[in-house]
């Protein structure tokens, strides 16, 4: 037992539970062995004894049916004798099949092998008498002799065959009952063995529980009591000395060393807490003053940052306005340049119009001159028409004087007169048209002269406007350049303000971080002071 007490806790648990597992394994093996033997008995019972018995009974039934079929052939008429013959052959086949099935059990049961040989010999004797003495006489129609043989020698062999079959069936039933009794005894033995083994496992588990309780639970309970007193602040508790070499004994010895160390630590902690509390108070006072100064600095930096932000917004607005003025000036310069180009195009158009008006005036003058020439030609044609008319009249007079010989000439004179009249009328119409054309040409000449003068005045005024627009364009260009310079200066000023704002934000962030660090230091000092007070209260709880 002393050697077991020095085992480790793991070894104790493994030994205790290992014994229980071994006992349970033995119990399980015993149960499995009993079940295996019971299963083997049942297999022998069902596969050998009962199977042989059932097949022997089926064989006996088949022999009886074959006997009935044979006797039926003796008394049946010729019409149904063939049917009984086929039934006789079928029963013989069934008997041979059953004998073949019974032959499969000879190797498993040597006693049955001898009985099977007796059964086969009895059936062979029965078959010899049936095939040699009865069936030939039945086929030859000698029913009386066949009946005598069937009730004589064949009946004797049949009785022996049936007796052998009954003996085999009875013997197999006795073996089956014996196996059933063996199975019942085996079940009772296995049950008793299992109960004994289970009781042994229970007793072993109980003994192991008591032993583990004394070896592990009791020392742990004592250690728990000491730990509870230590948790309550009583370091004066004495830890029971552990004598065993297992983990529990090691834990008790370590607990005793720990209590002694805690007593030393508690004494040193008491002295350190007093020093820590005084230093924490001084640090808290210094950090509180630094936090106040840092807060004032952060507030001043915040105000300066706000002022710089306002200046930045003003500069941003001025930059936007100067950019808008620059854009407007550049747009005005572009518009003036476009107006200048449009005016130059207009002047070129006016000069072209002036040239075309001069060409139209010269053309109208030439048209007037051609109209006068046409009038002179028309007057000449009119004079020729008058003369032709006079010639026609004179020709008519001469034709009248000539009489019959001048009649054809009179007709020609009449036609000439008619043509001269038509020419005169056409000439008069042409003269009227030419008069209207000359009036229109005169009006066109006057209008052309007025248009030429107007175009000349427009060209002169367009030239004056061009000079004014050129001056305006130059002024707008200079103004746009000045506006661009102003916008660039404003943008540079805005960039400078952005840098100033960024610098102030960095200063503000640094001030904020400094203030946060100071507050954190103040909080740490306050926590340190509170920790000192808490440690003082904690140390006062321990008694050593």
UniProtKB/TrEMBL annotation:
The keyword Transmembrane appears for this protein: yes
Residue ranges occupied by any Methyl-accepting transducer domain in the UniProt entry: 272-508
InterPro entries membership: Chemotax_Me-accpt_rcpt, HAMP_dom, HlyB_4HB_MCP, MCPsignal_dom
The protein, known as: HAMP domain-containing protein
Similarity section: Belongs to the methyl-accepting chemotaxis (MCP) protein family.
Gene Ontology CC annotation, any one: membrane
Lineage: Bacteria, Pseudomonadati, Pseudomonadota, Betaproteobacteria, Burkholderiales
Keywords (A to Z) from UniProt: Membrane, Transducer, Transmembrane, Transmembrane helix
Record flagged with keyword Membrane: yes
Listed PANTHER family: LYSOZYME-LIKE PROTEIN-RELATED (PTHR32089:SF112), METHYL-ACCEPTING CHEMOTAXIS PROTEIN MCPB (PTHR32089)
GO molecular function: transmembrane signaling receptor activity
């Amino acid at each position: 037992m002393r050697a077991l007490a020095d085992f480790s806790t793991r070894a104790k648990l493994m030994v205790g539970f290992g014994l229980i597992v071994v006992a349970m394994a033995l119990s399980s093996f015993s149960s499995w062995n009993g079940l295996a033997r019971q299963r083997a008995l049942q297999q022998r019972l069902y596969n050998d004894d009962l199977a042989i018995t059932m097949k022997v009974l089926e064989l006996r039934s088949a022999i009886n049916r074959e006997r009935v079929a044979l006797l039926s052939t003796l008394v049946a008429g010729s019409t149904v004798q063939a049917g009984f013959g086929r039934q006789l052959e079928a029963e013989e086949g069934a008997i041979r099949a059953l004998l073949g099935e019974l032959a499969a059990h000879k190797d498993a049961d040597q006693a049955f092998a001898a009985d099977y040989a007796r059964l086969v010999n009895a059936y062979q004797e029965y078959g010899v008498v049936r095939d040699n003495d009865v069936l030939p006489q039945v086929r030859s129609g000698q029913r009386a002799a066949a009946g005598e043989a069937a009730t004589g020698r064949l009946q004797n062999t049949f009785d022996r065959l049936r007796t052998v079959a009954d003996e085999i069936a009875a013997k197999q039933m006795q073996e089956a009952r014996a196996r059933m009794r063996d199975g019942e005894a085996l079940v009772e033995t296995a049950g008793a063995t299992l109960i004994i083994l289970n009781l042994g496992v229970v007793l072993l588990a109980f003994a192991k529980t008591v032993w583990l309780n004394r070896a592990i639970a009791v020392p742990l309970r004592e250690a728990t009591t000491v730990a509870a007193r230590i948790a309550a602040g009583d370091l004066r508790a004495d830890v029971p000395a552990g004598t065993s070499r297992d983990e529990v004994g090691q834990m008790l010895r370590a607990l005793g060393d720990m209590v002694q160390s805690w007593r030393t630590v508690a004494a040193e902690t008491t002295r350190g807490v007093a020093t820590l509390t005084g230093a924490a108070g001084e640090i808290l006072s210094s950090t509180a003053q630094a936090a106040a100064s840092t807060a004032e600095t952060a507030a001043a930096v915040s105000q300066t940052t706000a002022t710089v932000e306002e200046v930045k917004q003003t500069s941003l607005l001025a930059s936007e306005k100067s950019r808008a003025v620059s854009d407007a000036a550049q747009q005005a310069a572009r518009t003036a340049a476009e107006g200048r180009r449009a005016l130059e195009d207009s002047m070129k158009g006016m000069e072209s119009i002036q040239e075309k008006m001069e060409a139209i005036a010269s053309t109208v003058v030439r048209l007037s001159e051609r109209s006068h020439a046409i009038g002179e030609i028309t007057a000449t044609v009119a004079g020729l028409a008058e003369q032709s008319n006079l010639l026609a009249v004179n020709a008519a007079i001469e034709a009248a004087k000539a009489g019959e010989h001048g009649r054809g000439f009179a007709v020609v004179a009449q036609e000439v007169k008619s043509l001269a009249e038509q020419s005169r009328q056409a000439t008069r119409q042409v003269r009227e048209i030419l008069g209207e054309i000359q009036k229109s040409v005169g009006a066109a000449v006057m209008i052309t002269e007025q248009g030429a003068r107007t175009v000349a005045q427009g060209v002169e005024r367009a030239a004056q406007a061009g000079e004014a627009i050129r001056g305006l364009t130059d002024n707008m260009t200079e103004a746009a350049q000045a506006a661009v310079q102003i916008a660039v200066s404003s943008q540079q000023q805005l960039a400078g303000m952005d840098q100033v704002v960024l610098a102030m934000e960095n200063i503000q962030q640094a001030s904020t971080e400094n203030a946060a660090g100071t507050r954190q230091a103040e909080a740490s000092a306050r926590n340190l002071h509170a920790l000192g007070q808490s440690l003082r209260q904690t140390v006062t709880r321990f008694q050593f």
